[in-house]
Amino acid sequence: MASLCIQLIFFLFLFPISALSRKNGIVPLGSTLTAGETSASPWLSPSGDFAFGFQEVQHKDLFLLSIWYHKIPDNTVVWFVYSTNPVPRGSTVKLDPQTGLVHCDPRGLQLWSANVDSAQIDHGFMNDTGNFILKGNDDSWLWESFKHPADTILPNQELKIGDFLSSRKSATSFSRGRFYLRFRDDGNLVLVTKSVSTNVDDDAEYYNSKTSDSRDPLYSGSRVTFDGRGAMYIMKKDNQTEQLSPFSIPPASENYHRATIDFDGVFTHYYHPRTLTGNPNWKALWYLPQNICISLRANHRGSGACGFNNICNLKNGKPVCECPKRYVLLDPDDTYGSCIPNSTLSCAEVDGGSAENLYDFEVVSDIDWPLSDFEQIHPSNERVCVQKCLHDCFCAVAIYRENNCWKKGPPLSNGKADKTIHSKAFIKYRKSDESKPKDRGTFIRVEPVLLGTSFLVNLIFITTACLGFYLMYRKKRIISFEY
Question: What is the DSSP track for 138-186?
Fold first, then answer.
């Protein structure tokens, strides 16, 4: 009997601590994961539904510290840290007794930490709701991933006043994008855009739950709840609820649920069967807003759902962006980005020849950039509309509809395709560029004053240079004569 006990103790001593954590979700202090180490398994929840660790990104030998659905073939990521980009092989995450989770690159340089700042950390716990928790000696919760979401919330998770989700930059990028879901101080849940380059809220609001009551704050929203059944609602301070999800929800016992603000700006509730038969995938249950191509148009700032000069077309609740004819993508890898003309429009050229000889139009039905007008002509007909745009060097597109003509100048914003508007778009392009290969040139707007100034400067420069050469030559001749 004593021999058996000694063997059992010896076995437990040799058995890796991390292997024990894979059974019950507990992660002991000092546990470490290394990116790209195939022998090291992630920290799993008791059921194995969720995993915490490093996931390879697009087979590029780069790894993302994240939490994901472990039993789904595509290992859908539900939590990550925006401040850290995918990291190289050899990067680590460690459960440190003083600061909690610490993420370092292969050289040991710290990239991120949970920054618990407590000597009371006892262990980590990856639970079956997808929440990674740092627990204290008294079993208190010192830190949890649910309070630091990225782009997704899960059942049993809440958003409180001031909390937000931010979209990714693209479907394949884990950098921060320009769309946000915010739960504002006034109790409204809103979808807004933010300038990525300046990191400043431009408040281009394209959804508002209208759950704020300025007359009586008791009726305002206090938190957003995604309950264990998969229902989402705004809980008000008087305990009344404002439903966001439909009343018919696929049962959570048979389906995984998540709600994500996607890179395209649409906040979508997805569900996925737990049984992996018949190649199942994520399906959309509901989404906000109902039509992002129109919703973002209501605000006069920003490019819209797609980039500048781009056109938004709604398909299955999602924006599909496409450059109009005679335009190409500024970034060929970003179909949701801005488009630029592949021919130049210049006010300088109009003086050099008739507009009819210089320009022509592509005609496209049922598209518009409704916020880019700089002149409306009424009454009008198609011929007049085209001529007005042709002879205006600032006109890039003319829209004709119901005896009205709108001249539009670049950059064209909030573009949309809509078969109900019954309009014609006349897209101006330069004839001489027809045979040239497409490039990513830009509009050239040249004012006469600038042209005159440029000409004067060049004239002074050339005259001065010629005079200098003449004086040097004359001096040389005088010196030669003296000798």
Answer: TS-EEEEGGGS-SSEE-TTEEEETT-EEEEESSSS--SEEEEEEEE-TT
